[in-house]
User: Fold these one by one.
Assistant:
Number 1:
Amino acid sequence: MGFIILSAVTFQQSLAQQQKKKPNVLFLFADDQRADALGASGNPYIQTPNLDLLASEGSRFENAYVMGGNHGAVCAASRAMLLSGKSLFHVYDKLKGERTMPMDFAKAGYTTFGTGKWHNEKEAFEASFQQAKNVYLGGMADHYSLAMRDYDENGELGEPTFKGYSTEVFAEGAIEFIEDHVKSGIDKPFFAYVAFTAPHDPYSPEADYINYYPEGSLPLPGNYKPYHPFEFDDLMVRDELLTGWPRKPEVIQMILSDYYALVTHLDTQIGKIIQTLKENDLYDNTIIIYAADNGLAAGSHGLLGKQSLYEHSMNVPMIIKGPGVPKNETFDAMVYLYDLYPTLLELAGLPKPSQVDGKSLASILSGKDSDVRTSLFTAYRHTVRAVRTPEWKLIRYPERDYTQLFNLKNDPLELNNLAENTDYTSTKDELMSALRDWQKISGDTAALTTKVIKQLKYDPDTLTRKPDRWQPEYTLKRYFEGKKN
Amino acid sequence: MNALFQKFLSDGYMSKIETEIYENIQHIIRIIITFWLSQREVLAIKKFTEKGSMVKSIWSVISPYLTESGKQEQAKTIAKYGFLQQQSNNAE
């Protein structure tokens, strides 16, 4: 009898220890993925079975946003905000000297690991992660020839080498880390940051995924346009040059086929990482996050890139799964990527960070609150500002003295501009006021109407293009050769 | 798409009909796929905004030209993939 009681007590103690055991964190980060390029978001044309399963075993935030960018490389600002927890006007691309999310996890006794894309200074990476494998320093590159770096004996990122297809090499780095962590027997939780470069262009899928989505088999976006209807910012910013004007339906469909293939391949590699967690009995006690740095136009509104404030470019996928996260829930709260910093700390039971602008979403996940803010602000350079509420969205172009007003409930694709409709004058005024309030609390000093007003009208025939140095033969042949522009 | 139609013909799934009609069918299917999401913004009829309605519409265009074995193959395909799942070109 005594033996039985002793066993029961030991079992209960062990259970209590397990329950108190800090959860691991696996942060999976995609590059340029639209929120709707995901099966779980209701897109029937793309295959993402592993991410869909993750969403069904966790929660998805359908109104997750990047706050914007200071220049064309929106990803740099997005990552800086995510990792510092600060908003766009409180942190710049450079993270040197900033406190980052992995630092807080390290301070709490976690082993921290990073792999994949880092676009926020080498020194900031080294200060943020204890371990590293296959790190790419930069914004983008040919997926087949990314320069990967590992830590050297001094704990610094060494000379780059070329190892294989980006998505697979990053997944291998993450899998190797998880397996080594288990083998080491160290009784510490881990924080692993896996930043993929897919589905960012060049749109050159891994060889087995070429023609995964046959050309012409995917519908154009519902807000496809051959040209953007008016000029703003720089219509020839780098991302817009991947095809000519007018945007031809067959070329946009080609881009979508390659883009979706990149996402599906990414999904497959994520499946392998998750399988590694399961095989090592880590799945249940790991908080898994899947998100992307920003969206992408991919033919919507006559645009290709993310240098606008339309939904397709600012709305991002966001899935959280793990202890403390309800299963199969979709939340419509308006949230920022940089809310993840305080959210993850709270979910892991770590002290609340004092220096961040982000708000913890833990109260939403627990069902205590339905939102953490009543409106959401986005900004791109000094040329575009936007504010949205659950129902409305106003986009302001200060250089053009032009405003768009969309009813997102009735018009989620932002096609019907109601700004000049007098029925909605009060709505427009309220949103303009909210925009000014957001600027004030965010430290955004940009004028909402500039002194010199530029024309909206432009001649699309003046738009010209040429390939950049990152385009491999595959995309050169498909998107550049034989094209007039 | 033409190669796919030629395969349907050689496998005996489609009836032999005039070339012009084949070309028209192919073009109609291309229009359906390409502008499916755009038409939903303009012609928001509930029946045609439901998931799977694009694939159903494509089947409707092809069905009159299917042979008996073609109809059997169609039934098998629908049973296996439904109207939602896209059948990829790759095995994985």
Note: Chain B has a mean pLDDT of 85.
Number 2:
Amino acid sequence: MNDIVPAASLIPADAPFPKAAKVALGMPQLRKNLAHATGTIRAKRAKVAGELDDWEQLRDTAAAVKAGVQRRLPELAMRFEERATAAGAVVHWARDAAEANAIAARLVREAGAEEVVKVKSMATQEIELNEHFAAEGLRAFETDLAELIVQLAEDKPSHILVPAIHYNRTEIRDIFDQRMGDAPAGLTDDPAALAEAARLHLRRRFLSATVAVSGANFAIAETGSLVVVESEGNGRMCLTMPETLISIVGIEKLLPETADLEVFMQLLPRSSTGERMNPYTSVWTGVREGDGPRHVHVILLDNGRTNVLADEVGRQALSCIRCSACLNVCPVYERTGGHAYGHVYPGPIGAILAPQLEPGRHDDLPYASSLCGACYEVCPVKIDIPEVLVHLRQQGPHAAGERAAMGAAEAVMARPRLWRTALRAARLGSMPWRRKGFVRRMPWPASKWTVSRDLPVPPKESFRDWWKERER
Amino acid sequence: MNAREEILARMREALQDASPAPEVPREYRRALDPGVDIVAVLVDRLVDYKATVHHGTAAIERALEGARRVAVPADLPAQWRVGSAEFVEDRGLTTEELDAVDAVLTGCAAAVAVSGTIMLDAGEAQGRRALTLVPDHHVVVVRRDQIVGHLAEALPRLDPAAPQTWISGPSATSDIELQRVEGVHGPRRLDVVIADERTGPLAGPAA
Amino acid sequence: MERVALFITCVNDALFPETPKAVVTVLERLGYEVDFPAAQTCCGQMHANSGYKDDATRLARAFDDVFGGYDAIVTPSGSCAAMARDQYPHLTGSGIGRRVHELSEFLVDVAGVEDVGAHFPHTVTYHPTCHGTRALGLGDKPLRLLRAVGGIDLVGLPAADQCCGFGGTFALKNSEVSSAMLADKCANAAATGAEYLAAADNSCLTHIGGGVSRSGGPRPIHYAEILASTA
């Protein structure tokens, strides 16, 4: 049995992406686990998305609904507040992470509790609610299997949907065995046995919890309802059993009406877990006498979202429904995993969301892409991620040396005569390598290329010479 | 300015120069092709999720096999309470009591064939949410007239103000190597009985 | 005789004259008159995608000046065609991109041919480049042209739709990740046992070729050169 070494402890979260990625690339087990898991889910997604003959029409509708939501955000947020309040919920507003955490902690204390059970939620990861609670002497227990694995390993999530995607079954067995406290003796690495261990571990806690914290996949303005999409039943447990439920919901999660679910609930499960429908979806509206929590709170969270909203091109990132399809198809994510991105939202969506949520802090992420476009192709809400990546690159700062080189290149390319002279000079200058046909080693920065690739040598005769000769 | 006012002001400012929203196209399907056997599709999807499917109300007994004490909503029709099990009506059962029964038997509000989804909305014969969550075995009766082909046909049948639970197979997880395994915190066994009744309303609760 | 303009791209201008020569050969074989405006340089893609919008805008304007008078502009590069079509409208408002055709688009959609009378008795595997496939939507057009080539033995490339890791300055800025992607592409290419690896973009082929030249595997070739071959 191996000691638990959390991946996040090895991959520097604050380092620039290329540096952190280099560390991740040097972890063969991590890469193997990621390639296996992303390969599995890619095939499943492609199969179930391909089953629907109206997949593209659904994507078009979803993209337009979300674009409409963004334009109508103030109106929809207020309508949601009004309807949810009328149904017995208490709606709070939080400008940033600190405010959301403070409201949540206060509500837990007011409920007389020191512990909460949690449904997997990206919003609470984003605001680091668990860490904040710990600092206040409150304990938050993750109940989603993958979140539980990450929490027990004292690691950080590396994927939006499956935060423990970087662990294989054997590593998970070891984590349970060493950290769970009540893992069954002789626990095997059979996924069913591991799921059973999680069931036993959490059962008492579910049945006795008094406060739960959740996020939401959708918030319906028309009715004031929240929707949580899940698989294991941990969500149902948290949303149903405690007396008090606190849901932290990003303002971009709003949908105008219930009927919109007929679009999004086809797209989301097929894009995320590759299922026709996820095992459990819960929809609740305020308080229901005799059924579920008697105190229902909703915290509407900004935390940078209105920054994103202000950018005409970048705002489409707010359409994201956190399905993770873009991570699963991304050749960069597949090789580096999520920790290298240094943000709670990794992968292609993270590369456009993180720099907009926290301006100035993730300027390296828009470059963590070859712009291959696989993300846009699978995105169920048609976020043109490559377009936003390029847009963000065009906003961000540039290193002086690069700026000079690019400027010089443009100055030459914008002048046809200079361009032709430069090409001729390159052909002459490369004479010594002509016989070999390629260059194997170059000084920096070209060494970044020749580290793994040979460089071709300009030809003796250019196309232009050939053309001129022919015209004669 | 309080948080609410400030966030709303930020939104309005962010949207000042925004281009208008596009028209929302609605070209997607809202129903399956006519002639498709929706019951067969539903059964196929449920079996794929590793739920067990039975036909006819008489099969409820088989679906409940092995269960001695079965929790039921108080308004569960009498004709569904078949077999030798003891039926325990939920008139405020405690969590411990719910945890101690062997199974729960309910009806549903609608079922969607194409995704194999059973929908509960706390209506007739469905009970509260904890009832269908805590017991490890859920037997749900679906009337033929409750089955629709498509999600778009099902949503209007649900009470939007009521708590809803959409169930597609037994509880499952894909969190280990993205491979789906059934059975975590929700009921690990799901039996679906497709009842003979074609229309409601149901017979009244047992006396 | 219909006249078309040839945009050879800066990469081919500097490094790969055989590709634009092949385009000329194929187009003339089909009866087109090919024009080569000598003032052409670069579409501006590297600048735009690296975040240098102003530089890219100037190059986009220059492209318009050079090619504005032509109804059809043919280029042997999926990514340069995609640049003109997708990004020029945002940079300069120019709609010239609609008249820029990647070679296979021009042959299949405009000229309406798939068999261009080529002969190439070799095993070839085909890598669908990302911008050509996804941004431009070339689909299987290059493959349809290749299938019609006499004597060719086309073999499938495993994980063909995976990016080779080039991505312009990505190959330098994220050299390690790019190299890891390249290693997988080279291994898949080598596993085919093909003599040649064909693609619709010499920038990607430079990258793959630069790797294959170390690890071994099929020789990179622009598919235009296969279409030009009658050997």
Note: Chain B has five helices and twelve strands.
Number 3:
Amino acid sequence: MSSSVVPSIKKDFIYKLISEGKRIDGRAFDEYRSIKIETGLIRKAEGSAKVKIGNTQVLVGIKMDVGEPYPDSPDMGVLTTSAELIPLASPDFEAGPPGKEAIELARVVDRGIRESEIIQLDKLCIEPGEKVWIMFIDIHVLDQDGNLFDASLLASLAALYTSTVPAERFELGENFKLPLSKDPPISCTSVKLNNAIVIDPVLDEEEIADARLTVATDKKGDIRAMQKGLSGSFTIEEVKKIIKASIINGKKLREVLNKSIRG
Amino acid sequence: MGMKKPEDVILFKNNKRIDGRKPDELRPIKIEAGVLYRADGSAYVEWGGNKILAAVYGPREALPKHIQDPRKAIVNARYNMAAFSVEDRKRPGPDRRSIEISKVISEALERVILTEQFPRASIDVNIEVLDADAGTRCAGLTAAGVALADAGIPMRDIPVACAAGKVEGKVILDLCKEEDNYGDADMPVAIAPLTDEILLLQMDGHLTYEEFEKALDLAIKGCHIVSELQKKALLKKYERVLEVE
């Protein structure tokens, strides 16, 4: 996600800190920032959540509509995920149609949700072949300070788990809670810089990182999705280390998520 | 405006409006300054059911170069609605309505900003409507005013906006959704509150001249109330900073 350049003096500074075992914001290499999740903020949305990871803020809203199913899955609801990197969130984001970064972000979140099959799309069928629920997950990045992947997936999940299907609005009976299974995948992103691995990078770290790896894990600690990014590479040992750290931190993130969607 | 009123909707009865307000009463308003980390200045406004964020970037070099003005900064406001901010999902990106609103807000802000101090620069004001509930342009401009002040942009005044209108023949302040949909007139007004100069004025519907005078007077009174809330929000942020120091 580096469209701007961290001045080389700052890069030298971050590298020097890393070689001393420190990070720019004082965290340990395997320490996640503090997380805050708020749900039900947007009245017009079927479900919504705002996630803060450090200074990064992402707002996700769920909207639902009634429409036609895809011909190859006539009895399944339709899921669409979009992300917008709006110029409000960063001096480097520009207005206009979603670029590569926004599309990668939306697709990684979409895959995490779709492939884990937490949304029971078969229960979102109204009339097979004719009418199904169309579901939109819209990711609105509000403040970009690194690690949009984890923040966006977490916000999408919190929004989904607090969503109500607006059946009354479409005169299709009573509103009902969105049917979801209980075990969502939680992603955890790490980057490699100056040959060190740090978890949950801030923007300054992300911009000078050589490689990035996002690992989604489930409740049992099994791996459910991965995405490697940037032009650098990882050693096999590094990948193993990142996965282990993602399992441990995934547990913590899951607790925060569960707390926010209860009640 | 423009929508046919269902039989059972009563917009005005016993000097009370559909949501229980008096004719000259504003909806609840909450303003917070300095809510974003990356932006040079920012503000969050809750106004009735509206939830709006504004962020200011700049003054910074205007790009591409051909848009630069060698005499002054350009003010570039961008009003945008989140896909989930309205009843039926809005397709992301600008449409004709948001482009027009962006233009009139940009022009209103340009009047109060000391643009001549920053030749060839742009001052970018991003207004995001997160939850929409009638009167988003007024709430958006009000948020932009606070965000500009928070960014330290030199201004003649802090711009502020409020709408007045008419339902069932009665002139009212700050229309809610039903009043906007089924009412007789809607008139958003933005002013520079020190001088009462008018920075933005739009109207649709039907007003007699006398009603217009009354509506304008009411809108300006509303602007002054909101202006006090803007100043309070800015003061609160700096009180916070002082406490930390």
Note: Helices of chain A lie at 8-19, 100-115, 148-161, 203-207, 236-261.
Number 4:
Amino acid sequence: MPAADVLNLLIAALLLAGLYAAMSVGMTIIYGVMKIVNLAHAGFMMLGAYFVLELHERLGMDPLIGVLFAFPVFFLGGMLVYWLLVRWIPMSDQPTLASLLLMFGLWLVLQNIGYLVWGNSDRAILTARTFRTVHLGPILIPYIRLVVFAAAASSLAVLELALRKTWFGMSVRALMQNQQAGRIVGIHVERTARRTFGLGTAFAGAAGGLLAMLYSFSPDFGRPFLLRSFVIIVLGGLESFSGVAVGALILALVETLSILVLPAGYQPAIAFGLLVLALVVLPGGVATLFQKRQRLA
Amino acid sequence: MADILLQVENLDAAYGAVQVVWGVSLRVEQGKVVSLIGPNGAGKTTTLKVLAGLLPAKNGRICFRGQDVTNEASHKRVERKLSLIPEERQLWPRMTVEENLVMGAYPARLRPKARENLDRIYEMFPRLKERRGQAAGTLSGGEQQMCAIGRGLMADPMLLLLDEPSLGLAPMLVEEVFQYVRRIAAQGVTILLAGQNANYALQVSDYCYVMETGRIALEGPSAELVTNDHVRCAYLGATS
């Protein structure tokens, strides 16, 4: 196999990883702060896709601008969902069945709202960008993937900066690492949780919009991506941001490179396979590999 | 008589169905160091947790600076200048020393003063300044305790609840930690100190409560308790 093809695949994997990371990070911060496995993440991604589609079709808005709009809209939507539903579940430092069921139920409701409003036919967002490619010598990159990667990477960079430099961001990181210590220094835990839920939902909506620029979608859109988010988060060790990046890269590489050895029809099995493998071999995430090495050294 | 900063009346506390604190009453006067000693499992830590708002009071009343705070959330108590330095430090291991300290000034009232307070803490603990960029989880036990104390002081407390500051530290460091307690008290911070190390606790405190199996068994000025036979035998290692 020619080197250029391998290079093409690696670049494709990297570009995909950026999107995957943006898609998973919302689930990670919600899990980290509240220990809630947000199954409704899939529903918010689906709504994000339709949100961008509607803005594009009705107002002729560029999908990228639509994604930008999705952030505040889904942020407020997430805060509303928190206020209406999530806050009634007692905060715990472990995932609870009640929260899992609530989020699963919410996902089903969102999905069915999707069917009610948009029907079950597949939709897609096509623009002038969709089929353009960029040639760099022997390397050929679909332009739209480059755009989506840039959007995902810059949103992650802004998030990272906010988590390090703002009081809210610091309180999110603190609660992820030790909730009781957060209460001790006077963090209003419920307020931080509410905003975190908003932020996680904002990232779900925006990621849905970005995904919609690449793939066709229906109200069941979020399902395969929810599974991928799971894999990424488990690989990443559940609550670290660098872990999310590493997990996203691993999944994207395995998925992309697998077309060399497996028929494309088997692709959905790859995420499942990785999930099982990660849970059995590395339940603490990829980071445990490095920690073990440190302990030996 | 000095102002009463903290007044606790008939406090009961429980973890679920298991009650561990029974009818505890105590008071802390402004500017004093009060100690709460007793064996492991006597309910000292639980009492401090209830005072800080981490655990609800089952019964009883907590008054701080004349206000009833019994049912108030923990963040509101920090705003009122009541801070806890918890047992086992409870730092954020993957945040830097400086981030841990700065978070001590999280309540809105304290944020404008965060920089100034941080400089003060660094002056008090030069070691922390050296290590400010390091993840708190990589500090030694003694340094972590300094960091926890520093984080508590970042909130400008009037009353500091200090839980087992010497836990798990080498004897030399225990001595150092208690010197810091003296210095903090000398700066005018009122302290309620819980600890198993009765020797040191009695030395630094003005007044002492002895807690046994969830109840206050004995109380009195520390200077008098030092000569009490029960205290001497049970806590100070006297043999007769």
Note: The mean pLDDT of chain A is 88.
